[in-house]
Write a structure and sequence with these properties.
With 289 residues, the protein is of the alpha/beta class. The chain contains twelve helices and nine strands. It folds into two domains: 123 residues, Rossmann fold, CATH 3.40.50; 141 residues, Rossmann fold (3-Layer(aba) Sandwich), CATH 3.40.50.10090. Strands 3-7-6-4-5 form a five-stranded mixed sheet.
Length: 289
Protein backbone atom coordinates (compact mmCIF):
# COMPACT_ATOMS: atom_id res chain seq x y z
CA UNK A 1 0.00 0.00 0.00
CA UNK A 2 2.82 2.36 0.88
CA UNK A 3 4.65 1.41 -2.31
CA UNK A 4 1.51 2.19 -4.32
CA UNK A 5 1.22 5.64 -2.74
CA UNK A 6 4.86 6.37 -3.53
CA UNK A 7 4.32 5.35 -7.16
CA UNK A 8 1.31 7.68 -7.44
CA UNK A 9 3.30 10.52 -5.89
CA UNK A 10 6.14 9.91 -8.33
CA UNK A 11 3.72 10.10 -11.24
CA UNK A 12 2.46 13.45 -9.98
CA UNK A 13 6.05 14.69 -9.63
CA UNK A 14 6.82 13.59 -13.18
CA UNK A 15 3.83 15.60 -14.41
CA UNK A 16 5.15 18.69 -12.60
CA UNK A 17 8.68 18.16 -13.90
CA UNK A 18 7.34 18.20 -17.46
CA UNK A 19 6.20 21.80 -17.06
CA UNK A 20 8.16 24.08 -19.45
CA UNK A 21 9.71 26.23 -16.71
CA UNK A 22 10.47 23.47 -14.22
CA UNK A 23 13.91 24.00 -12.70
CA UNK A 24 13.96 27.73 -13.46
CA UNK A 25 14.31 30.21 -10.57
CA UNK A 26 13.23 33.68 -11.66
CA UNK A 27 14.09 36.82 -9.73
CA UNK A 28 11.41 39.54 -9.55
CA UNK A 29 12.71 42.92 -8.38
CA UNK A 30 9.57 45.05 -8.54
CA UNK A 31 7.41 45.81 -5.51
CA UNK A 32 4.90 43.04 -6.19
CA UNK A 33 4.69 39.99 -8.43
CA UNK A 34 1.37 40.73 -10.14
CA UNK A 35 1.65 39.53 -13.74
CA UNK A 36 4.34 36.96 -12.94
CA UNK A 37 1.92 34.28 -11.68
CA UNK A 38 1.95 32.46 -15.02
CA UNK A 39 5.64 31.64 -14.56
CA UNK A 40 4.84 29.74 -11.36
CA UNK A 41 1.93 27.97 -13.05
CA UNK A 42 4.37 26.73 -15.70
CA UNK A 43 6.73 25.29 -13.11
CA UNK A 44 9.17 28.10 -12.30
CA UNK A 45 10.11 29.18 -8.81
CA UNK A 46 9.63 32.95 -8.45
CA UNK A 47 11.89 34.66 -5.94
CA UNK A 48 10.77 38.10 -4.79
CA UNK A 49 13.39 40.68 -3.92
CA UNK A 50 11.95 44.17 -4.01
CA UNK A 51 14.49 46.79 -5.02
CA UNK A 52 11.92 49.59 -5.18
CA UNK A 53 9.12 50.77 -2.93
CA UNK A 54 6.29 53.01 -4.11
CA UNK A 55 5.55 55.90 -1.71
CA UNK A 56 3.65 59.24 -1.81
CA UNK A 57 5.49 62.44 -2.78
CA UNK A 58 7.21 64.52 -0.12
CA UNK A 59 4.99 67.47 -1.02
CA UNK A 60 1.46 67.37 -2.46
CA UNK A 61 1.23 71.14 -3.09
CA UNK A 62 1.56 71.14 -6.88
CA UNK A 63 -0.78 68.22 -7.46
CA UNK A 64 -3.30 69.66 -4.99
CA UNK A 65 -3.39 72.90 -6.98
CA UNK A 66 -4.00 70.93 -10.16
CA UNK A 67 -6.83 68.99 -8.50
CA UNK A 68 -8.46 72.26 -7.39
CA UNK A 69 -8.68 73.33 -11.03
CA UNK A 70 -9.04 69.87 -12.58
CA UNK A 71 -11.83 70.91 -14.96
CA UNK A 72 -9.52 73.47 -16.56
CA UNK A 73 -7.61 70.65 -18.28
CA UNK A 74 -8.54 69.14 -21.63
CA UNK A 75 -6.70 65.88 -21.01
CA UNK A 76 -5.58 63.85 -18.01
CA UNK A 77 -2.86 61.32 -18.88
CA UNK A 78 -1.84 58.30 -16.81
CA UNK A 79 1.28 56.34 -17.68
CA UNK A 80 1.07 53.71 -14.93
CA UNK A 81 -1.25 51.94 -12.51
CA UNK A 82 0.57 53.66 -9.64
CA UNK A 83 -0.17 57.06 -11.16
CA UNK A 84 -3.88 56.16 -11.23
CA UNK A 85 -3.88 54.85 -7.67
CA UNK A 86 -2.12 57.80 -6.06
CA UNK A 87 -3.94 60.47 -8.09
CA UNK A 88 -7.44 59.25 -7.33
CA UNK A 89 -6.62 58.64 -3.68
CA UNK A 90 -5.45 62.25 -3.44
CA UNK A 91 -8.53 63.45 -5.32
CA UNK A 92 -10.70 61.73 -2.71
CA UNK A 93 -8.55 62.97 0.18
CA UNK A 94 -9.11 66.52 -1.09
CA UNK A 95 -12.88 65.96 -0.80
CA UNK A 96 -13.31 65.80 -4.58
CA UNK A 97 -14.73 63.07 -6.79
CA UNK A 98 -15.02 62.10 -10.44
CA UNK A 99 -17.87 64.58 -11.00
CA UNK A 100 -15.29 67.35 -10.80
CA UNK A 101 -13.61 65.83 -13.86
CA UNK A 102 -16.57 66.40 -16.18
CA UNK A 103 -15.34 67.29 -19.66
CA UNK A 104 -11.77 66.11 -19.03
CA UNK A 105 -10.70 63.38 -21.46
CA UNK A 106 -8.62 60.47 -20.20
CA UNK A 107 -5.59 58.83 -21.80
CA UNK A 108 -3.99 55.64 -20.41
CA UNK A 109 -0.68 54.10 -21.41
CA UNK A 110 -1.26 50.36 -21.41
CA UNK A 111 -4.27 48.12 -20.87
CA UNK A 112 -3.44 47.58 -17.18
CA UNK A 113 -3.52 51.34 -16.61
CA UNK A 114 -6.84 51.57 -18.46
CA UNK A 115 -8.26 48.77 -16.28
CA UNK A 116 -7.16 50.61 -13.12
CA UNK A 117 -8.99 53.74 -14.31
CA UNK A 118 -12.11 51.72 -15.09
CA UNK A 119 -12.32 50.64 -11.44
CA UNK A 120 -13.19 54.25 -10.60
CA UNK A 121 -16.11 54.15 -13.04
CA UNK A 122 -14.31 56.26 -15.64
CA UNK A 123 -14.09 55.57 -19.36
CA UNK A 124 -10.68 55.86 -21.01
CA UNK A 125 -10.76 57.86 -24.24
CA UNK A 126 -7.37 56.89 -25.63
CA UNK A 127 -4.94 53.98 -25.19
CA UNK A 128 -1.87 54.29 -27.46
CA UNK A 129 -0.71 51.17 -29.30
CA UNK A 130 2.94 51.81 -28.40
CA UNK A 131 3.70 51.84 -24.67
CA UNK A 132 6.34 54.58 -24.64
CA UNK A 133 6.59 58.37 -24.83
CA UNK A 134 7.11 58.39 -28.59
CA UNK A 135 4.06 56.20 -29.17
CA UNK A 136 2.04 58.36 -26.80
CA UNK A 137 2.74 61.59 -28.66
CA UNK A 138 1.99 59.90 -32.00
CA UNK A 139 -1.37 58.57 -30.81
CA UNK A 140 -2.19 61.79 -29.01
CA UNK A 141 -1.63 64.04 -32.02
CA UNK A 142 -3.59 61.66 -34.25
CA UNK A 143 -6.52 61.56 -31.81
CA UNK A 144 -6.63 65.33 -31.46
CA UNK A 145 -6.55 65.89 -35.21
CA UNK A 146 -9.47 63.48 -35.57
CA UNK A 147 -11.50 65.17 -32.83
CA UNK A 148 -10.74 68.80 -33.73
CA UNK A 149 -10.81 69.84 -37.36
CA UNK A 150 -9.21 73.20 -36.48
CA UNK A 151 -5.99 71.43 -35.53
CA UNK A 152 -5.60 70.27 -39.13
CA UNK A 153 -5.03 73.84 -40.22
CA UNK A 154 -2.20 74.48 -37.74
CA UNK A 155 1.43 74.25 -38.77
CA UNK A 156 3.46 71.22 -37.72
CA UNK A 157 4.98 73.23 -34.86
CA UNK A 158 1.58 74.09 -33.36
CA UNK A 159 -0.45 70.90 -33.68
CA UNK A 160 -1.33 70.96 -29.95
CA UNK A 161 -2.06 74.68 -29.74
CA UNK A 162 -4.76 75.43 -27.15
CA UNK A 163 -4.58 71.98 -25.54
CA UNK A 164 -3.99 71.82 -21.77
CA UNK A 165 -2.78 68.54 -20.26
CA UNK A 166 -2.25 67.23 -16.73
CA UNK A 167 0.27 64.41 -16.29
CA UNK A 168 0.50 63.03 -12.72
CA UNK A 169 3.40 60.57 -12.63
CA UNK A 170 6.49 59.31 -10.83
CA UNK A 171 8.92 61.85 -9.42
CA UNK A 172 11.65 60.63 -11.76
CA UNK A 173 10.65 59.94 -15.35
CA UNK A 174 11.63 60.71 -18.92
CA UNK A 175 10.91 64.20 -20.26
CA UNK A 176 10.36 63.13 -23.89
CA UNK A 177 6.57 63.48 -23.88
CA UNK A 178 6.29 66.78 -21.94
CA UNK A 179 8.99 68.36 -24.11
CA UNK A 180 7.29 67.24 -27.31
CA UNK A 181 3.91 68.57 -26.14
CA UNK A 182 5.45 72.00 -25.54
CA UNK A 183 7.27 71.89 -28.88
CA UNK A 184 3.93 71.28 -30.58
CA UNK A 185 2.34 74.29 -28.89
CA UNK A 186 0.50 72.51 -26.06
CA UNK A 187 0.48 73.31 -22.36
CA UNK A 188 1.29 70.52 -19.92
CA UNK A 189 1.55 70.37 -16.12
CA UNK A 190 3.73 67.51 -14.90
CA UNK A 191 3.35 66.90 -11.18
CA UNK A 192 4.57 64.16 -8.85
CA UNK A 193 1.92 61.65 -7.76
CA UNK A 194 4.31 59.09 -6.27
CA UNK A 195 7.99 58.28 -5.75
CA UNK A 196 10.06 55.14 -6.04
CA UNK A 197 12.59 54.68 -3.24
CA UNK A 198 15.12 52.01 -2.36
CA UNK A 199 13.82 49.84 0.50
CA UNK A 200 15.94 49.00 3.52
CA UNK A 201 17.01 45.45 2.66
CA UNK A 202 20.37 43.68 2.93
CA UNK A 203 20.11 40.96 0.26
CA UNK A 204 22.28 38.35 2.00
CA UNK A 205 20.00 35.44 1.08
CA UNK A 206 19.79 36.57 -2.56
CA UNK A 207 23.59 36.86 -2.72
CA UNK A 208 23.91 33.25 -1.59
CA UNK A 209 21.44 32.14 -4.27
CA UNK A 210 23.29 34.06 -6.99
CA UNK A 211 26.72 32.79 -5.92
CA UNK A 212 25.46 29.21 -6.01
CA UNK A 213 23.97 29.73 -9.49
CA UNK A 214 20.40 29.12 -8.32
CA UNK A 215 18.92 32.19 -10.11
CA UNK A 216 18.48 31.48 -13.81
CA UNK A 217 16.64 34.66 -14.89
CA UNK A 218 16.61 38.15 -13.33
CA UNK A 219 13.79 40.51 -14.33
CA UNK A 220 13.95 44.30 -14.17
CA UNK A 221 10.85 46.39 -14.80
CA UNK A 222 12.48 49.83 -14.66
CA UNK A 223 15.91 51.42 -14.60
CA UNK A 224 15.32 52.06 -10.89
CA UNK A 225 14.83 48.36 -10.11
CA UNK A 226 18.19 47.61 -11.74
CA UNK A 227 20.15 50.56 -10.31
CA UNK A 228 18.84 49.90 -6.82
CA UNK A 229 19.77 46.22 -7.22
CA UNK A 230 23.36 47.30 -7.91
CA UNK A 231 23.42 49.50 -4.81
CA UNK A 232 21.94 46.84 -2.55
CA UNK A 233 24.25 44.08 -3.80
CA UNK A 234 27.30 46.32 -3.60
CA UNK A 235 30.61 45.79 -5.38
CA UNK A 236 29.79 42.16 -6.23
CA UNK A 237 26.59 43.03 -8.10
CA UNK A 238 27.87 42.79 -11.69
CA UNK A 239 29.79 39.57 -11.03
CA UNK A 240 26.69 38.02 -9.44
CA UNK A 241 24.67 38.65 -12.64
CA UNK A 242 27.42 37.52 -15.05
CA UNK A 243 25.88 34.10 -15.75
CA UNK A 244 22.24 35.08 -15.25
CA UNK A 245 19.79 35.65 -18.11
CA UNK A 246 18.62 39.26 -17.81
CA UNK A 247 15.11 40.31 -18.84
CA UNK A 248 14.40 44.05 -19.21
CA UNK A 249 10.87 45.37 -19.67
CA UNK A 250 11.82 47.97 -22.28
CA UNK A 251 14.57 50.03 -23.93
CA UNK A 252 15.04 52.51 -21.05
CA UNK A 253 15.61 49.66 -18.59
CA UNK A 254 17.80 47.82 -21.11
CA UNK A 255 19.94 50.92 -21.54
CA UNK A 256 20.60 51.05 -17.79
CA UNK A 257 21.62 47.38 -17.78
CA UNK A 258 23.91 47.75 -20.80
CA UNK A 259 25.44 50.93 -19.41
CA UNK A 260 26.62 48.85 -16.44
CA UNK A 261 28.35 46.48 -18.85
CA UNK A 262 25.85 43.61 -18.82
CA UNK A 263 23.94 42.00 -21.68
CA UNK A 264 20.14 42.05 -21.97
CA UNK A 265 18.92 38.67 -23.20
CA UNK A 266 15.15 39.26 -23.14
CA UNK A 267 13.24 42.45 -24.00
CA UNK A 268 9.65 42.43 -25.28
CA UNK A 269 8.41 44.74 -28.02
CA UNK A 270 5.71 46.04 -25.67
CA UNK A 271 6.98 47.41 -22.36
CA UNK A 272 4.60 45.42 -20.15
CA UNK A 273 5.04 42.66 -17.58
CA UNK A 274 2.70 40.39 -19.55
CA UNK A 275 4.79 40.79 -22.70
CA UNK A 276 8.02 40.17 -20.79
CA UNK A 277 6.61 37.02 -19.18
CA UNK A 278 5.57 35.79 -22.63
CA UNK A 279 9.12 36.32 -23.93
CA UNK A 280 10.57 34.43 -20.96
CA UNK A 281 8.26 31.48 -21.64
CA UNK A 282 9.06 31.45 -25.36
CA UNK A 283 12.80 31.53 -24.72
CA UNK A 284 12.54 28.68 -22.22
CA UNK A 285 10.50 26.65 -24.72
CA UNK A 286 13.13 27.35 -27.38
CA UNK A 287 15.93 26.05 -25.17
CA UNK A 288 14.01 22.82 -24.52
CA UNK A 289 13.16 22.26 -28.20
Amino acid sequence: MVVGDVVKLRERLKWYEKKPLFGQCILVTREHTAGFELLEELGAEVMEFHTIEIVPPDDWTELDRAIEKINSYDWLIFTSVNGVKFFFQRLIDRDRDIRDMKGVRICAVGSKTASAIKKYGIKTDLVPEKFNAEGLIEAFVSELRTQNSELRTYSTEHRLKGIKILLPRAETAREVFPQKVRELGGEIDVFTAYRTVKPEVHGKRLKRFLKKGKISIATFTSAATFNNFLEIMGEDALALLKDVVIAAIGPVTAKAVEKAGLKVHIMPQEATVDAMVKEIIEQAAGRQA
